[in-house]
Amino acid sequence: MGLIQIEGMEFYSFHGHYLEEQIVGSRFIVDLTIETDMSRAALTDNLDDAVNYQRAYEIVRAEMEKKSYLLENIAGRILDALFGELKGIISATVKVSKLNPPVGGKTAAVSVTMSRKNNSQDITKR
Fold it and tell me: In this structure, is residue 125 part of a structural domain?
């Protein structure tokens, strides 16, 4: 087993409960951890035997482009898309952080972290 970690993915997106957030936008940071069996890829040195982290980034980017009111919705959609498109994931954790959120005072960020495990018995690649 092993972990793929994609850290500090930065996006400018238009998520938020308030209309102003949806118009002006804000900076977001996304961190992703994927647990997978790396034993085959370690032997073969073949991308087809690994979870492709470039594709994982593209999935996150695509979900960040879709407007949401809540960070929880963004995190859930990212997990749905990852498990729907990438085979070989045992579990995944995504952290979505909104920088400088409008909470009424100086705050660096507010974050939501969600995790999911693959409930399927067969997590092998197609």
Answer: no
Active site residue 98: yes
Q: Is residue 89 part of a domain?
A: yes
User: Tokens at residue 79, please?
Assistant: 């997990």
CA distance linking residue 2 with residue 40, whole number of Å = 11
Q: Which domain holds residue 44?
A: 2-117
Listed in sequence order, the residues at least 6 apart from 103 whose beta carbon sits closer than 8 Å to its beta carbon are 110
- The span from the CA of 115 to the CA of 53, in Å, is 17
Catalytic residue among 67, 87, 98, 117: 98
Cβ–Cβ < 8 Å for 89, 123: yes
Sequence-separated (6 or more) residues with CB below 8 Å from residue 30:
9, 11, 60, 64, 78, 94, 95, 96, 97
Provide the number of structural domains found in the chain: 1
Q: Please write the tens of the pLDDT for every residue from 67-117.
A: 999 999 999 999 999 999 999 999 999 999 999 998 889 999 999 999 999
CATH number at residue 108: 3.30.1130.10
